[in-house]
Amino acid sequence: MYILGIESSCDETAAAVVEDGRKVLSSVIASQVEEHKIYGGVVPEIASRRHSEAIVGVVEEAISKSGVPLDEIEGIAVTYAPGLIGALLVGVNFAKGLALSADKKLIPVHHLRGHIASNYISNKDLEPPFLCLVVSGGHSHIVEVKSYTELKILGRTRDDAAGEAFDKAARAMGMSYPGGIEMDKIAEKGNDSAFKLPHPRIDGAPLDFSFSGLKTAAINILHNAKQKGEEINAADLSASFRKAVVDCLIENFMKAAEQFGYTKLTVAGGVSANSLLRRRLKEVCSEKGYELYIPELSLCGDNAAMIASQGYYELLAGNTAGMDLNACAQRTIDLG
Q1: Less crowded by CB within 10 Å, the N or C end of the chain?
Q2: CATH 3.30.420.40 in the chain, residues?
C-alpha cells in the first residue's frame, strides 16, 4: 500500500511516498533554515508564506521520484497537529484539496506520532509495544507505545523542551540558529565537568522533566562572566550543558523502563540526533541488556516519510478524516 505524506508543521515543507509504512520510495524536503537564521528562530508568518510557495512543487517532485502514479496511492497523510497554526494550515488545506480532487482517503497524523514512526522506517523489525523517548524543539515526552495507534504519555516536560533549552542556551552563547546542532559539535571538544549545572527534578512526578532552570543557570553563568569581563570557554560550557540535559533525559527514561517493565526502547525527534544522547543511550541499554532502536540521522528532523509511515498504520486502524479536518496548534499524542 502506497501512502503520500505531507509535513508543514514548522519550517520544512516536505512530501514523501512510503510503501507499507516501512519502505521510503521518495522523500523531498524544502528547508527554510537559512532564511530564519537571521532572526535567530522561526518566524511563523514567513514560514507559512514559504510553505504556500513550495508545497505544490515539493509534492509533485515526491510523487514523480517515487515512480508511483497518484492513481495508485491509497491515501494522503498530513500533519495536522501540533505545530505553528499557519504552517499546519497550508499542509492540511493542500492535502484536503488533493484528497478531494483525486478521490483519496485523507489521513490526519499527529506530528509526534510521526517522529516515533521514523523508527519503523529505520528498523524494519521494530513492532510495538515499546517505550519511546520523544525529544524535540517543542516537546520532551516519555511515551508508552502500546500499539501503532494506542499511545500513553508517562512523563513530559513541565516547562521548556530539551531542544528549546539547547537552542536558547546556544543563542545566549552567540551561536546561530538552530543552536542545538552547533552546540553539539562544539561540545565534542569541551570538558563536560568544567561547570556544575543543576539536574532539576519534579516533586511527586519522577518521570517529568524541567529544563527552564537548567537553561537559566547556563545563561546566568554567561551574564556573570560578561559583567566581570571574563571569557567563558564555549566548548566547556556547551559540553557541561549538554551532559546535564542528557543526564536528565536518560535518568527519567530508565526509571520509566524499570517501573513499567519495558526492555525494548526507542528514541525519536530532532534531539535524537544529538551525538551524546545517542552514545549514552547505547551504553546504558547495553549495560542493562535492553534492546535500543534509534532512527537514522536523516529521519530525526522533520520529514514527510515519517508522516506517511504513521499514516499507513492510522489508515489500517480506520483513522481517516473528512473535509472538515482542521489544523490544531496543540494536541497531546495520546489523543491522536
Answers
A1: N
A2: 2-116+299-335, 129-294
φ, ψ (nearest 5 deg) of residue 61: -65, -40
- Which candidate, 230, 245, 226, 240, places its Cα nearest to that of 189? 240
Place of cell 560578561: 226
pTM above 0.85, yes or no: yes
Low-confidence ranges of the chain (pLDDT < 70): none
CA atoms in the 13 A half-sphere facing the CB of 45: 1
Distance of CA 287 to the CA centre of its chain: 26
Question: Could you confirm whether domain 2-116+299-335 is CATH 3.30.420.40?
Answer: yes
Q: Which architecture, in CATH terms, is 129-294?
A: 2-Layer Sandwich (3.30)
Give dist(CA 156, CA 262) in Å, integer.
Answer: 18
Q: Which residue reads 543563542 in cell numbers?
A: 171
